[in-house]
Amino acid sequence: MLTFAIPKGSLLKDSIVLLQAIGLDFSAFLDESNRLLQITEPQGIAKAMLVRAQDVSVYVEYGEAHLGIVGEDVLREKMPRVARLLDLRFGACRMSIAVPQDSPHRSALSLLPHSRIASKSVRITQDYFASLDLPVEIIPLYGSVELAPITGMADAIVDLVSTGRTLRDNGLIEIEVLFHSTARLIAHPLSYRLDREQLSYYVDRVRDVLPQ
Amino acid sequence: MLTFAIPKGSLLKDSIVLLQAIGLDFSAFLDESNRLLQITEPQGIAKAMLVRAQDVSVYVEYGEAHLGIVGEDVLREKMPRVARLLDLRFGACRMSIAVPQDSPHRSALSLLPHSRIASKSVRITQDYFASLDLPVEIIPLYGSVELAPITGMADAIVDLVSTGRTLRDNGLIEIEVLFHSTARLIAHPLSYRLDREQLSYYVDRVRDVLPQ
Q: SS3 for chain B, per residue?
């Protein structure tokens, strides 16, 4: 049976809508009272697992899911061995550097060597500052990254920004955009190559329903 | 000003109650409508930051918080350079290995070499199986670890268990306990040695109010 890994959180709703558009109804995941992490859609053609956004690529990499929906940011951070098929165009956000409003720094290159940068995306942060040849100290955090510059623990943060409201609420301003991110359709490479469970048919249908 | 790092999630309520018992009231963090991540208690003696359980030790390690409350499991996974002061006796849980009910394996040593073990605690899992001289493949996940054996992606999981309900609900059984965990009081080592902000006075008060 065709299997999808679907991300909890901000990409969930659009993912469900997209799959409904190709005739696969997993809307039960949107029901607040639902506690199941695995459901089969009413026609019995496909199954979906509801997992953390960061775990989607793991399920696809190990072939437990044939297809998955995941943010470009997660792909850049984890670099999983998966086939990248389509830009799904929803879930737009950007990976940015932000500093306190009263910071004298207005670009990445103006940050001092050995500045402290708090981030949930350690690899992305590391690679970016390495590309600038600017040595920095990275403080790896799990959540509420915007708190780190407020308390003075970090000089800047590298974090995902969508509306920018969290930054504004915490007196931070964006000084650099590392890259723009959207949701992506990924596949287990071998399953895709062997066209298991008519994978390419469903991928084509997704492509057809994407906004032109 | 004396500063605490307090963990969101399962240790939050008991942490607030403990600090109230020594005269520091941070109960505003328990208010559902509170959005502040940093508050000063009414007397103006101490400040607290509300952070992810995994981030408490980071704030303490960097000296942004003098004291922090954190689970033993986080200390074993992250091995932060902090001073470990007291066992607070709440938040009891255990780090365990669990397998599907129909698995033939009933102990860690009976697992086959190169079994796949899903876990959020990669270092703990690695160290444990290394100590058994049993090579395993670790699948690092962020959440819903119990889903991994259900889908067949993993043969076993290493996860934190408190009541055991999540395991039962997912048809898993515990076959080994790696260690028992409770909440700990930790301090920034230098601040503690220099007794900044009367740290030792407050640590003594916490010790006095702990159940004997």
A: CEEEEEECHHHHHHHHHHHHHCCCCCHHHHCCCCCCCEEECCCCCEEEEEECHHHHHHHHHCCCCCEEEEEHHHHHHHCCCCEEEEECCCCCEEEEEEEECCCCCCCHHHCCCCCEEEECCHHHHHHHHHHCCCCCEEEECCCCCCHHHHHCCCCEEEEEECCCHHHHHCCEEEEEEEEEECEEEEECHHHHHCCHHHHHHHHHHHHHHCCC
Q: Do A175 and A196 belong to one domain?
A: no
Residue B35: per-residue pLDDT: 80
pLDDT at residue A34 in the model? 81
CATH number for the domain harbouring residue B34: 3.40.190.10
Whether the pLDDT of residue B36 is over 90: the answer is no
Overall number of domains in chain A: 2
Verify whether the Cβ–Cβ distance B144 to A37 is below 8 Å.
yes
The answer to whether the beta carbons of residues A67 and A199 sit under 8 Å apart is yes
ipTM higher than threshold 0.85: yes
Say yes or no for a CB contact (<8 Å) between A151 and B54. Answer: no
Looking at residue B212, what is its pLDDT?
Answer: 75
Q: Are residues A106 and A174 in the same domain?
A: yes
- pLDDT of A8: 95
- Mean of pLDDT over chain B: 96
Q: What type of residue sits at position B13?
A: K
The first and second tokens of residue A185, run together, are 């359709």
Minimum distance, in Å, between the CA of residue B46 and any CA atom of chain A: 14
- Residue A32: pLDDT band with limits 50, 70, 90: confident
What tens digit of pLDDT does each residue of B14-34 get?
999 999 999 999 999 999 888
The reply to whether the predicted model has a pTM over 0.90 is yes
Query: Which residues form the domain of A17?
Result: 2-91+182-209
Domain match, A83 and A105 both:
no
Mean pLDDT of chain A, nearest integer: 96
Same domain for B85 and B62: yes
Pair A85, A187 in one domain: yes
Instruction: Decide if A144 and B55 are in contact by the 8 Å CB cutoff.
Output: yes
One domain for residues B174 and B97: yes
Do residue A9 and residue A39 come from a single domain?
yes
Cα separation of B188 and B83, whole Å? 6
Nearest Cα of chain B lies from the Cα of A86 at a distance, in angstroms, of 24
A175 and A130 in a common domain:
yes
